[in-house]
Design a protein that fits this description.
homodimer, 431 residues, alpha+beta, 18 strands, elongated, binds N-(aminocarbonyl)-beta-alanine
Chain lengths: 431, 431
C-alpha cells in the first residue's frame, strides 16, 4: 500500500516552485504557473533527479530534457514506467501532470519500503513540455521520442510571445541531455500514466477510477488573417479589410460548425497588429484547436472550415456571420498546422492491469466505480503507445475543471490513483 | 507664395526619425512609426524647436509637452496659430499630422522671406500625443489645454503594452515644460490646422481643398469580458464561459448594429489571458471605437450596445450571433469610457478665411475644387475650438488611406494645403 499522506505532502511541497494565483483559503488553494523549461521547472526537475537518485534509481536525461529514473529489477529488459509531466499551463493547477509524476515516485518509494523485487526494471518519466503552452506543440518531447517530430524542428520551436527556443531553454537550465531522444535508443517496456480526468464524467457518475482506452483526435492550427490597416474614423465599412472583424467571424463560425458536427473548437491565443484603438487592424493571428473522437470526423471538420473561412473572409455568408453585410473588401486567410494528434487506442493488456488493480483496491463494491473511458485531452501516453504497451488511469477532479488555478483532486482520489498505478505496474511487470 | 519644394524636402528629411515600413520603391515610400514621446519623437521635437528658434520665434513648452513657437506681430494679443502633431500611429504615414506642422513652419518661413509684418503674433504648435496610439486617449494634450482632462489624469495615463506613463516619458525625453497647460494661462487667438482628409471624398469628387466645418462625435471604450479558464479538450461547449468566443460575438454585433444605425464601430486592440492554445481564455479585453455625426445617434448606439452586450454574453440571441446556440454558461461584460469627443462645429469666420484663401490660390476654376466637409477623425482643433476660433483645411490623400504606411499626399496637394494655410492665417490676422 502506498503512503497517501506522504504523496499529498510531497506533491504540495514541490508546488512552491511555480506558484500561481490563490483561489481559495486553504493551504493548497493556490494555482500553478510552471511553464516548461522556466526557472521553476528547473527547480522541480532538480528535485525529481535528486529524489529518484536518493531512492537508488539510475537517472538519465535525453536530448529533449525528458528524465528517465529507473529502479533495477531481476531481469534485463525495457522498464515498466509511470510517466507524466511536471510543467503546467500559465494559469494551471496542482494536479494536471504533477500528480502522475508524484504518484510514480510514490510507487517506487513503496516498492523500496516493502523491498519489492520486480521481474524487470521499473521507473518514472518526467516528459518535457507536455502542455504545449509555452512552446506551442503539446507533448512534443514524447513526440520526438516516438519519432513523430524531428529533433531539429523541436529544437527550433519558439516560445509564445518571446524569442527563446526549446533548445536555448534546455541549455540555459542545464537539461539538454546526452541520451538520444528515441524509442529505439531508449525503449520503454510499458507506460502507465495517472492523470486527473480534466472533465466531469467520473465525478458526475460517482466513478472513482477511469481505465482509459484511448484519446480523442485533435489538431492545432495557427490562422493568419490579412487585411489592410486603416483609420477607424474615416474609413467606411465597405472600404475596409478588417482583419479583426474577419477573425471574430471565423472564431464564431468555427464554434458553430464544430458544435453542429459534434466536435470541439477553441481559440486560446489571438494577436493583432498594429494594435491601436483608432487603426483597423490589418493583421490578426489566432490559434484554433479542434477535437473529435474520430479522425474522419475531424478531417471533415477541418476541410469544411478551410472552405468556409475562405468564403467568410471574402464576404459570403456562412452560418449567418455575414448576414448583416459588414463584409467590406475582404481579407485573406492562411492556415498552418502546428499539432496533429490522431485518435489513439491504448493496449487492452495494460487497460486490464489498470481495471484489475483498481478493483482490487476498491474491494467488493468496486463495480460501478471503475469505468472505461476516452480522454478528451492529449497525453504523453498518446505517443508512448505508438511504440510501447500503454494505458492511463483517470481520477475525478472537481467539476471537471482543469487548466485553471482552481483545479482540484481530493487527497482520497490522489491516493486511489497512485495505488491503482502501483498495482497496474506490478501486475504488468509480472505478466 | 510658399516654397513648395522646400516644404516637401524638409518634411521628408525629418521622416528619418521614426521610419516605418517600406511599401513602395520611391525614396519617400516608407511609412512612419513615431509613437509619441519615444526617442524618434524627441528627435523631431528637437528639430522643431531648433528650426522655429532659427526663424526668430519665441518657443515655449507647456506641462503636457505641447510646443508653441511664436513669431512677433505689430500688436499684443493671442497669436493666430497653425497647429498639428508630429507623432504617428505605430504603422502610420508621413502626412497625418506631420504635414500640418511642416506647413505651419513653411508659412512662417515665407512670412520671413517676404518680410511680412502681421497685425498680431502668429505661430506654430506641435501638440503632444494627438494619435492616442501609445497612450490611449487621443488629443489628450490639447484636451488638457482646453480643460477637458485634468493634468493629473493625463500624467497617469499608461502606455499600451507597457509601464511608462505620459509623465515619465515627458520627463525622460526632456519635454515636461514649465508653462501651464491651459487655455487661460496660454490663450490662442485662432487655430488653423492643415491635415490630409484621411478619407476618399476629396479625391473621388475631384476636390482640391476641404474647408472643414466640424468633426464627427466619437467615443472610445475598453470592454472587459470575464469567463473561466478551462481545458479546450475536455470541456463541452455547454460547460464553458468562453471569454474569447463571447468577445468575437460582441465585436461582430457592434459592427452589425453600428452599420444598421449609420455609425462606425471598430476594434483595434484585443488582449486575452492566459494565452495558451489549449486553454479557453477566461479574460479578454478589447477596445471599441464608435463614431457618428450626431451626438444623439452615438449615445443611442452606446446605450443599445450596452444592453445587447449584456444579453449576448448571457447567451440570448441578438442579431444572430447566438443563433447557433454555442452559448455556454455566459460571461460578464464591463465597460470603461476612455475618450469622449462630442461632435464639433468650427467657426464660420475661420472657415470663410480657408475658403477665400483656397479660392484665391486656385484661381478662376476654383469652383467645385473647394468644398465644405466634416471630419471623420478627431483632431486637436476639436479641443482648440472650445476656446478659440478654429477651422481646418483638408487635402486629398490617395484612396483615402491613412493610419497605414502607404498613406500618400502628392507634392501638389501638400503645397496647396500649405498655401491655403498661410493665406487663411494672414486673412484671419488682418480680420
Ligand atoms: N492533458 C493535457 O492538458 N494535455 C495537453 C494536450 C492537450 O491539449 O490535450
Ligand atoms: N486624425 C487622427 O487620426 N486623429 C486621431 C483621433 C481619431 O482617431 O480620430
Amino acid at each position: 500500500k502506498i503512503d497517501r499522506e506522504r504523496l499529498w505532502k510531497v506533491l504540495h511541497s514541490t508546488c512552491e516552485w511555480g506558484k500561481g494565483e490563490r483561489w481559495g483559503d486553504g493551504p493548497t488553494d493556490i494555482g500553478m504557473s510552471r511553464l516548461t523549461l522556466g526557472d521553476a521547472d528547473k527547480q522541480a526537475r532538480d528535485w525529481f533527479v535528486e529524489t529518484t537518485k536518493s531512492l537508488g534509481c539510475k537517472v538519465q536525461i535525453d536530448a529533449m530534457g525528458n528524465i528517465f529514473a529507473v529502479r533495477t529489477g531481476k531481469n534485463e529488459g525495457p522498464p515498466t514506467y509511470a510517466g507524466s509531466h511536471l510543467d503546467t499551463q500559465p494559469t494551471g493547477g496542482r494536479y494536471d501532470g504533477i500528480l502522475g509524476v508524484h504518484a510514480g515516485i510514490e510507487a517506487l518509494k513503496t516498492m523500496n519500503d516493502l523491498d519489492i523485487e520486480t521481474e524487470y526494471d521499473t521507473g518514472v518519466i518526467n516528459w518535457t513540455n507536455e502542455e504545449g503552452a509555452r512552446f506551442p506543440i503539446s507533448m512534443i518531447s514524447s513526440g520526438v521520442w516516438a519519432g513523430a517530430f524531428s529533433l531539429e524542428n523541436a529544437y527550433k520551436l519558439v516560445e509564445v510571445g518571446g524569442k527563446a527556443t526549446q533548445k536555448s531553454e534546455l541549455e540555459r537550465i542545464g537539461y539538454l541531455g546526452t541520451l538520444e531522444a528515441s524509442h529505439k535508443a531508449n525503449p520503454i517496456g510499458a507506460h502507465f500514466e495517472l492523470h486527473i480526468e480534466q472533465g466531469p464524467i467520473l465525478e458526475s457518475s460517482g466513478g472513482k477510477i477511469g481505465a482509459v482506452e484511448g484519446a480523442q483526435a485533435y489538431k492545432w492550427f495557427t490562422i493568419t488573417v490579412r487585411g489592410r490597416d486603416c483609420h477607424t474614423g474615416t474609413t467606411e465599412f465597405q472600404n475596409r479589410s478588417d482583419a479583426m472583424l474577419t477573425a471574430a467571424k471565423l472564431i464564431l463560425h468555427s464554434h458553430n460548425k464544430a458544435r453542429a458536427d459534434g466536435c470541439l473548437a477553441s481559440t486560446g491565443i489571438l494577436k493583432l497588429r498594429p494594435g491601436s484603438t483608432n487603426t483597423v487592424p490589418g493583421w490578426v493571428q489566432f490559434s484554433l484547436d479542434i477535437r473529435s473522437r474520430e479522425d474522419a470526423t475531424l478531417s471533415k471538420l477541418e476541410e469544411a472550415l478551410k472552405k468556409d473561412f475562405e468564403r467568410i473572409a471574402n464576404g459570403e455568408d456562412v452560418s449567418g456571420v455575414n448576414a448583416q453585410g459588414t463584409k467590406g473588401r475582404g481579407c485573406t486567410v492562411e492556415w498552418q498546422l502546428d499539432t496533429d494528434s490522431p485518435a489513439t487506442k491504448f493496449y487492452e493488456d495494460c487497460i486490464k492491469c489498470v481495471e484489475e488493480s483498481a478493483k482490487s483496491m476498491l474491494g467488493t463494491n468496486a463495480g460501478g466505480q471503475v469505468r472505461r473511458m476516452t480522454s478528451g485531452a492529449g497525453h504523453d501516453s498518446v505517443y508512448t503507445s505508438r511504440h510501447a504497451p500503454t494505458a492511463m488511469i483517470f481520477v475525478p477532479c472537481r467539476e471537471g475543471i482543469s487548466h485553471n488555478p482552481a483545479e482540484y483532486c481530493s487527497p482520497e482520489d490522489c491516493g486511489n490513483g497512485a495505488q491503482t498505478l502501483l498495482g497496474a505496474m506490478l501486475r504488468y511487470d509480472r505478466y
